[in-house]
Specification:
single chain, about 350 residues, alpha/beta, TIM Barrel, five-stranded parallel sheet, 17 helices, binds adenine, binds zinc ion
C-alpha cells in the first residue's frame, strides 16, 4: 500500500502516552550504560537489542527499571527530554504528554531539584524544536501507597510548568487501582487530570476500577475492554478515550499481533481511540509507525487516520485555542486521491 507511510508521517500528530525513560534512544541508553556498567544494561548495541526482546510484561518492567537506574542528574533528564522532542519533531508530532515517574528517580538518589531542572530545560529545548510538552507524573504501582503519597506530595508541592495529569503505571496484577484512590482524589481536587494505566495486563474489572475509584478521564492502554460489551458501551457513551499502544502490547506479549489487537473492536463500538508508543525504542516503535501498522492491519482509509489524529487532539489536555489550531493544521493536510491507500 504505497503512500501510507508518507501520509502518516506528514499528518500533524499528538502523542498522549509515552514514558520519558522509555523514550531514550538506543544510542542514549548505550551511552548511559557505558557510564555505569554495573547497572546490568548492555553496553553493546547487539546485546541491547536482545535485552529489549521481552518474554512478558514482568520481564519488560525489569529492563525498564534497570534503564531508569542509569538516569542520575539534570543533564541526563535534559538529554532524555531533548532527545524525545527531536524524535517527535522529526515525525511531525506537535504536542506530547510525557509520563515521568518522580518516585523512581528520587528512590535512585536523584534530588527533586535535579529532576525538575532537567524537565524545565528539556521542555524549553522542545519548544525551540516546535514541540510542546506537558507532563504526567505517575505512581509506580508496584511500590505501593508510599509511592502514591510521595508522588502526590512532589506533584502538588512542585507543580512544575506543564504538569497536567496524574497517572499510575507498573504492573496491574496484584496492584489494585482502588488502593490509590486517596492520592487520585487529592490530585484531582488540585486540578490534575486522572490518567491511570488499566486493562493493559489484567481484565476489564481493572478498567472499571480506574473509572470508578480513580475518576479516570482517559485510560492508559485499556486493551482488555474489548472483552466486556458493557464497558465498551460505557467508554463510547462517556467518550472516555483510550491511549492505545499496539506495538507495546505485542512486544510485551499481551496480544499476538497488531492484526489481532482489539483496536478493531474498540473502533467498531465507537470508542475514542488514540494511537501512542509507550516506550518507543524499547519496543522498536515510532508514532508514525503506529499509524502505519494499524492502517495496514485494519485496512483504514486516509480519512480514518485523520480521525485518529483528531481523536488525540480532542483527548489531549491542551486548551481549546491550541486544540483548534492543531485541528486546523490537520484539516489542511491533502488527502491522497481517491481518499484511501488501497
Ligand atoms: N512503565 C513504562 N511502561 C509501562 C507500561 N507499558 N505499563 C505500565 N508501566 C509502564
Ligand atoms: Zn505506559
Amino acid at each position: 500500500m504505497p503512500g501510507i507511510r508518507a501520509f502518516a508521517h506528514a499528518l500533524p500528530k499528538v502523542e498522549l502516552h509515552v514514558h520519558l525513560v522509555g523514550s531514550a534512544s538506543l544510542p542514549t541508553v548505550l551511552e548511559l550504560a557505558r557510564r555505569r556498567p554495573s547497572a546490568g544494561v548492555p553496553t553493546d548495541a547487539r546485546e541491547l537489542a536482545e535485552f529489549f526482546t521481552f518474554r512478558d510484561f514482568a520481564h519488560f518492567l525489569t529492563g525498564y527499571l534497570a534503564v531508569t537506574s542509569l538516569v542520575r542528574d539534570r543533564h541526563d533528564i535534559h538529554t532524555l527530554v531533548a532527545g524525545l522532542a527531536a524524535d517527535l519533531a522529526a515525525q511531525n508530532c506537535r504536542y506530547a504528554e510525557v509520563t515521568v515517574t518522580p518516585y523512581n528517580h528520587l528512590l535512585d538518589g536523584m534530588p527533586g531539584d535535579e529532576l525538575l531542572s532537567g524537565l524545565e530545560t528539556g521542555r524549553a529545548r522542545a519548544a525551540e524544536l516546535g514541540v510542546e510538552l506537558a507532563w504526567c507524573f505517575d505512581i509506580p504501582g508496584e511500590k505501593g501507597a508510599k509511592a502514591g503519597q510521595e508522588t502526590l506530595v512532589f506533584a502538588l508541592r512542585e507543580r512544575p510548568e506543564g504538569l497536567v495529569s496524574f497517572g499510575l503505571g507498573g504492573p496491574e496484577l496484584g496492584v489494585g487501582r482502588a488502593r490509590f484512590e486517596p492520592f487520585f482524589t487529592r490530585a484531582r481536587e488540585a486540578g490534575l487530570h486522572s490518567v491511570p494505566h488499566a486493562g493493559e495486563t489484567t481484565g476489564p474489572a481493572t478498567i472499571w476500577s480506574a473509572l470508578h475509584d480513580l475518576g479516570a478521564e482517559r485510560i492508559g492502554h485499556g486493551t482488555s475492554c474489548a472483552g466486556d460489551p458493557a464497558l465498551l458501551e460505557h467508554l463510547a457513551a462517556h467518550r472516555i478515550p483510550l491511549e492505545v499502544c499496539p506495538t507495546s502490547n505485542v512486544r510485551t506479549g499481551q496480544v499476538p499481533s497488531i492484526a489481532a489487537h482489539p483496536v478493531r473492536r474498540m473502533l467498531d463500538h465507537g470508542v475514542v481511540v488514540t494511537l501512542n508508543t509507550d516506550d518507543p525504542p524499547m519496543f522498536g516503535a515510532t508514532l508514525t509507525g503506529e499509524y502505519v501498522a494499524v492502517a495496514e492491519a485494519l485496512g483504514l482509509s486516509a480519512l480514518e487516520l485523520v480521525r485518529l489524529a483528531e481523536n488525540a487532539v480532542d483527548a489531549s489536555f491542551l486548551d481549546e485555542r491550541r486544540k483548534a489550531l492543531l485541528r486546523s493544521e490537520i484539516t489542511q493536510i491533502t488527502l491522497p486521491d481517491p481518499g484511501n491507500f488501497a
